Amino acid sequence: MDRQTLQVDGVQLALRVYESEGAPRASVVIGGAMGVRQAFYEPFARWLAQQGFRVTTFDYRGHGDSLQGPMRAVKADLFDWAQDYEAVITGAKAALPAQPLYLLGHSLGAQLPGLLRNPAQVDGLLSVAAGSGYWRDNAPKLKRMVPYFWWVLVPLATRLCGYFPGRALKKVGDLPAGVILQWRRWCLSPTYSVGAEGAAAAQSYGAVRFPVLALSMSDDELMTLRGTHNLVNLYTNTERRVERITPADVQARRIGHFGFFRDQFQQSLWPRAVEALAGLGRGPGAATVSGTTV
């Protein structure tokens, strides 16, 4: 693993690059979930590199290893994070220009690709445990909590601290004020980012032509199947599929929102990711895994 930095509009991003031992068959950029540091994906990224992929992970500006100085001083929103994502994609493509480049987006990491300015660099998106963040699409237990979260806790804590102190509150993680407040607007809109940001965002999602395969976990404690479909359907002009995976499919007691990337699934779910990425590269209708199409 090689730790690197990337300058984006004067901001330094922290990257980790995992090279394959032989000639790589493709590049994979892992887009992380909200509040999740790139270190969380390291076991999976190392394993994926062993399967012949050049893998890049990163932390969005003002977060994780990319945080410089106090978080209350960070000026960033989700458009900036989409720009960071795109800069990492551009760098990965330049490092391996002759091979396909795939995105593996976990939660937020499958939402932001709809805001890329140059989606033609990407050959496919594998979405894991992602969906619309609209609060009525949240899983039932979470949905009971979110009115307090969005209407009381987030505005109050962010105003008092100058950022969202999620680690102390054991909610999501520490986030820059611009990120959490924009995310709040998205999550309060029935059509999520497109509803909150209007026609320009709708056109951006509509410009995507790379195929999207979404893996939905039946026991996801945050995201519902409806929410996954609502996210995937924002990508209006490309092939898109949703595959449902249950713990029983992989002889496990639980997968949940974060479990896919835990090394207990090295022999079960992780090979399915390789299968899915290969399918994205084979063209229309080929991207599928051993789950239930829904």
Automatic annotation (TrEMBL):
Keyword flag Methyltransferase: no
Gene3D superfamilies registered for this protein in UniProt: alpha/beta hydrolase
A Pfam family it matches: Hydrolase_4
Database matches in InterPro entries: AB_hydrolase_fold, Hydrolase_4, MAG_DAG_Lipase, UCP037442_abhydr
Domain of life: Bacteria
GO terms of molecular function: hydrolase activity
Keywords associated with the record: Hydrolase
Protein name listed in UniProt: Putative alpha/beta hydrolase
Annotated organism of origin: Acidovorax soli
Taxonomic lineage from the root: Bacteria, Pseudomonadati, Pseudomonadota, Betaproteobacteria, Burkholderiales
